[in-house]
Design goal:
Layout lengths: L2 H9 L1 H5 L7 E3 L3 H11 L6 E3 L4 H5 L7 H14 L10 H13 L7 E5 L5 E6 L9 H12 L1
Parallel strand pairs: 1-2
Antiparallel strand pairs: 3-4
Organism: Cytobacillus pseudoceanisediminis
Pfam family, one: AhpC-TSA_2
Protein name: Peroxiredoxin-like family protein
Length: about 150
């Protein structure tokens, strides 16, 4: 789960919901891990559900980034100072993040999907890498387009 992206969704939830959409987050983790995440970084005004087998992730075409590529991006970002907040300052949050990197699949990338009330896919964005999340402004624009 990308903490920064979830924080942006939390901050802008009223804009998303005002367009008639419900936000549901699917994480490639077990419920116990999601609960630990929520204890450290929550609450969130939307449900975060688990897909520990990653069946939905794979079925929807989400990508797993090669380990060497993700680690080199992280190292480059850390050295150049382009990656800020990767490890939180708060000790309990920091402990949780470090544990996550050792026990969770941090290589699988997410995406953003818009569905109709009938379950039809209206739009999707599959993340290619951690910094490639759909921008909230773009999601809002797409919401306006598909509702028109």
């Amino acid at each position: 789960m990308c903490r920064e992206y979830l924080a942006q969704l939390r901050e802008r939830i009223s804009e998303l919901e005002a367009r008639g959409f419900q936000v549901i987050v699917i994480a490639p983790s077990k419920g116990t891990f999601i609960n630990q995440f929520l204890e450290q970084f929550g609450p969130f005004p939307f449900p975060i559900l688990g897909d520990p087998s990653r069946e939905a992730y794979r079925g929807m075409g989400h990508k797993t980034m090669p380990k060497w590529k993700l680690l080199s991006k992280a190292a480059f970002g850390f050295i150049t100072g382009k990656v800020k907040g990767f490890v939180p300052d708060n000790e309990k949050q920091k402990e949780f993040v470090m544990k996550s990197m050792k026990t969770q699949n941090v290589y699988i990338q997410g995406g953003t999907w818009l569905f109709s009330p009938q379950g039809k896919i209206l739009w999707k964005h599959i993340d290619e890498s951690p910094e490639n999340h759909a921008k909230i402004a773009d999601v809002l624009k797409k919401m306006d387009e598909v509702k028109a």
